[in-house]
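Supplementary Text 2. Reproducibility record for the structural model of the 77-residue chain.

All settings were left at their defaults, and a single model was retained for analysis rather than an ensemble. We include the record here because the model underlies the residue-level annotations in Supplementary Table 4.
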Amino acid sequence: MGGGGDLHVPKEIWSPAGGFYADPKRWKRNTAVIGLIIAGIAAYAFKQSVQMEQRHKQPYESIPSQRWYTEKNFPQQ
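Retained model, structure tokens:
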């Protein structure tokens, strides 16, 4: 039980997940492409968030979003 010996599994076994010896072709390129897509979606979501942000008064302590927050987001009083 769990001796860690050779499993004697044939390499011809097929499964949707890639079988026992999964090493898909071009996996590094595919991973990079998906990473770039996710980074692009995150950048777009961040940009939209910054544009829609509103504050009702000036914060009295420094907060990280002040680096990209502009005065135009404050409502005119």
